[in-house]
Amino acid sequence: MSDSLRIDALYASFLDRLPPALQSAGRELPFRLGLVPRPSIPWSQAFKHAVTLQAPELLVEGSPGASARLVDRAVLAHLLAVIEAFGADRVADGQVVASRELALVLEQVRLARDEALFELDGHSAVELAADADRRTREAISSEQQCFGEGNPVPFSLYEAISSGKQAVGLTAGVALGKALGWRASRTELVRTTLMSIALGLQFQDDVVDWEADFTRGGAWAFLLARHERGTASNPVNLAEARALVLSSGVLAGLLRSSETAYRNARLGAVELGAVALAHWADEREREARGFHESERKNPGFLLRLKQLGPWAAEVFG
């Protein structure tokens, strides 16, 4: 079975268990969360990188004892965790209108995630997920507070909040490692590798999408630029914000951080023996390095690249 068919089959198994009144909303969830342009597009086509939804499977490549059943449970748990996190974040930042139906579907997503985690590592996995949920909620709340206040933000705070938002995406990989009997140091390497992947993607997204984020009410690049430039003034429109951000060099800095995160992911994947994941991270590291150099020399490069339309979709997803 191809990667895309597997993802869609696993999600279909979740849909089959939904109450009839929620199945339509569940089936159209990628569209309702604003991740795809049409209701008929499935989760397998919602993200450019397979690692976003299949990370646990890539991490245990070639590992003895990694049965198809265990891997399926881990991928399902990870898939549902990512979906629930995207839903919560998009509702919080106003990209999606909150509704009772959406809330009920996301609640079912979370419950099904916990069932899959329980099959992997019992109550400890479910408790780990609950702690990750708490960290993610707190991070989203902190993010909204930062955007609401509009004050300058240092990179250290931005990175801490970004890491908190990614917490829910680590649990399934760690639970799978424990289910396979891996020692604590190896499961910790799984956690740090997954975090590096998530941050590499997040840092780059926060460069590519910063102008759209600013118009919706909050962009990290803008707050980082205010801190970098040490300015007390608060630009009130996009043109002023663009001038500040491009003059600050923070976009190049974020891309450099993305490159570093991908490098850490590559090194972790190599140590885990995850060959395909190491290759993916190496490609992303090289790509981020090129973007960083171009952005450093020509501020606004990546935004202009994105505006090239269909071709850019192949790069950014």
Q: Give the low-confidence spans.
A: 311-317
Overall spatial form: globular
What level of helicity do the residues show?
Answer: over 70%
Q: What is the number of independent domains? A: 2
The major beta sheet can be summarized as: none
Return the structural class.
mainly alpha
Mean pLDDT: 89
Percent strand equals: under 5%
Topology as H/E string? HHHHHHHHHHHHHHHH
Report how far apart the termini are: 23 Å
| Counted beta strands | 0
C-alpha-based Rg, rounded: 19 Å
Q: With helices defined by DSSP (H or I, 4 residues minimum), what is the helix count?
A: 16
Topology:
Layout lengths: L2 H13 L4 H8 L1 H4 L18 H9 L8 H25 L7 H50 L5 H11 L5 H9 L4 H25 L1 H7 L3 H10 L8 H11 L1 H23 L2 H23 L3 H6 L3 H7 L1
Helix pairs in contact: 4-5, 4-8, 4-9, 5-6, 5-8, 6-7, 6-8, 8-9, 9-13, 11-12, 13-14
Keywords:
single chain; 317 residues; mainly alpha; 2 domains; 16 helices
What would your notes on this structure say?
It is a single chain. The chain is mainly alpha-helical and 317 residues long. The protein has two domains: 1-158 and 169-179, no CATH class; 183-317, no CATH class. Helix content is 76%, strand content 0%. The chain is built from 16 helices and no strands. It has helices at residues 3-15, 20-27, 29-32, 51-59, 68-92, 100-149, 155-165, 171-179, 184-208, 210-216, 220-229, 238-248, 250-272, 275-297, 301-306, 310-316. Helix 8 (171-179) runs antiparallel to helix 9 (184-208). The protein is globular, with a radius of gyration of 19 Å.
